[in-house]
Amino acid sequence: MDNNQSPTDLTLDALKSVVSQALLGKFTAVFPKLFKCQWKTYEGQKKFFANFSESGCNMANRKFCVGGNWKMNGDQKTIAEICKTLSDASLDANTEVVIGCPAIYLMYVRNLLPCSIGVAGQNAYKVAKGAFTGEISPAMLKDIGADWVILGHSERRAIFNESDDLIAEKAEHALAEGLKVIACIGETLEERESGKTNEVVARQMCAYAKKIKDWKNVVVAYEPVWAIGTGKTATPDQAQEVHAFLRKWLVDNISQDVSDSLRIQYGGSVTAANAKELAKKPDIDGFLVGGASLKPEFVEIINARK
After folding, report:
1. At a CB cut-off of 8 Å and minimum separation 6, what does 254 contact?
2. pTM score > 0.85 for this model?
């Protein structure tokens, strides 16, 4: 300490130190309410803290990623309960968590969850705006605080007849707009029983690969359609077999770097009972969870690698 400093100088130095520490990322201790992601400050937070948090947000290679796809389920009361469970839980810091909720509740969910949990739209169209009644654009999702979108889910393919090409175009546009994408693929029971699993997932990946040039904001979700919502699940070995095939497909058709870094989730009746065994497989990098993500057991699934 400089003996010639006045009390005023010492006070200013102390104040500068506090401000400096805050700018280094200690706002969570000083202003905890800022980090609750209230909508009025959310976008401002993201922009303001971008320069300070960038180095801390770089994920380790293939960080485990668990998505909860609520589908067309939930109301304000039950959603508040789910969000409270997630907010109060001790979640594995080494697992990235994303919640895909119905579009009309996206802002509500964003306000209730901590910033550490991502929020995803369950669908988005391939253009920014226009005469497309009932559709939602990536720009709209971003505007209300979502940072992810789920595309190509088997229900979009089977029920709403979305083609491989349309899904790929939607993924291309969502990425260009700054959203991260969970890109779904998977075969039906008939296709599996006909020995066409690899052929089907390769075809779906080819469509994505024609449109996606930068894969850093993409997570692929392999979901065998016959295991979604049926209570059936691929065995850990069956799931690993397809994931390993996809890893090799990436080497052969895109690059070794993308194969090494791209995360591939498994989805299809994932529960707390089977999550730990599935999570042990070397090419399974997380889960896309349906019904179980609406229940308290989702916390156990998130913590499957703990």
Report:
1. 209, 215
2. no
Q: What is the DSSP letter of 58?
A: P
Strand pairing category for 117-121 and 286-289: unpaired
Q: What is the pLDDT of residues 132-141, one digit of tens each?
A: 999 999 999 9
SS3 301: helix
pLDDT digits (tens, 9 = 90+) for 248-299: 999 999 999 999 999 999 998 899 999 999 999 999 999 999 999 999 999 9
**SS percent in the chain: helix, strand, coil, step 5:** 50, 15, 35
- What pLDDT, in 10s, does the model give residues 174-202? 999 999 999 999 999 999 999 999 999 99
Catalytic residue among 162, 169, 187, 223: 223
From 96, 153, 169, 173, active-site residue: 153
What's the pLDDT at 306? 92
Nearby residues of 168 by Cβ (< 8 Å), 6 or more positions away: 207, 208, 210, 211, 212
- 173 in catalytic set: no
42 phi and psi, to 5 degrees? Answer: -60, -55
- Whether 153 is a known active-site residue: answer yes
Spatial CA neighbour of 216 closest among 244, 166, 181: 181
**CA-CA distance, 172 to 126, in Å (whole number)?**
8
Residue with structure tokens 């939602």? 136
